[in-house]
Design brief:
single chain; Gas-vesicle_GvpO; Gas vesicle protein
């Protein structure tokens, strides 16, 4: 299914953050049917990774009014998605009130 990483070699995935990000985005896209736009956070955990991935849920014109969502994604040490959840929805052009 994800032939780009070395099966049976979790060290290869764990040591390569770029590959980990790619795997997370690829798997989330397959599950949600939407292409991830960016990764806004990335954290190594014991035995895996936790990422926050930004996804366009509803494209609008102008683009600043498009509806985006933040998904928290967890991967095991082999790069397989073990869970995800939407943690926030927002319009692209609006400032984040939580950042103040």
């Amino acid at each position: 299914m994800f032939a780009h990483h070395e099966q049976g070699n979790p060290e290869a995935v764990m040591a390569n953050p770029t590959e980990t990000l790619r795997l997370a985005c690829e798997q989330l896209a397959q599950l949600t049917g939407r292409e991830p736009e960016s990764v806004s956070s990335f954290q190594r955990l014991d035995g895996g990774w936790r990422l926050t991935v930004e996804v366009v849920e509803l494209a609008r014109i102008p683009d600043t009014t498009s509806l985006l969502a933040s998904y928290e994604v967890e991967l095991d040490q082999e790069g397989s998605l073990t869970g995800y959840r939407r943690v926030r929805r927002y319009e692209r052009g609006r400032a984040d009130d939580r950042a103040r």
